[in-house]
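Data availability (excerpt). All sequences and predicted token strings are deposited with the supplementary files. A representative entry, Shikimate kinase, is shown inline so that the format can be inspected without opening the archive.
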Amino acid sequence: MKYFIVGFMGCGKTTWSRKLAAKWGYEFIDLDHVLEAKAGMSIAEYFSSFGEDAFRKLESQVLKETEYAENTVVSTGGGLPCFFDNMDWMNANGKTLYIKLSPKTLADRLENSKTIRPVLQGKKGDELIEFITGKLAEREGFYLQATNIVEGIDMSVEKLEEALGVTAT
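Structure token line:
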């Protein structure tokens, strides 16, 4: 089975996908890393060189053309479910799990993140919360199409397994 983990940046998609895959002995794929390898540059560089439209097209292509092992946990980019038919494609090709967190919690995590996120540059405090609230309002309709949803607070592999209705094979 393929599991696609979706949610807003900073919700823990990569961390929890990796932990779930390790526990189950599944393959782990971070689609952002696959995209960067294919593009030969970072997502930030691609974005600034070619723009969001080109990035979203490449991201969708990477999602659909990557070869997945039978048992794989996939970490997706935060915006990936919200473009083209990506969410429908993931639901048709595996199970999807939305890691849901409040704008305040996401802002706290992103403000202290070591990862460079170009879209957040210079935003702090209330401005960051406001930005996330707006973006989340745009995206949540797509995230909520996931076959499974889990509250991201007090996360554990066991909580993920419970949300997916699965235990280690």
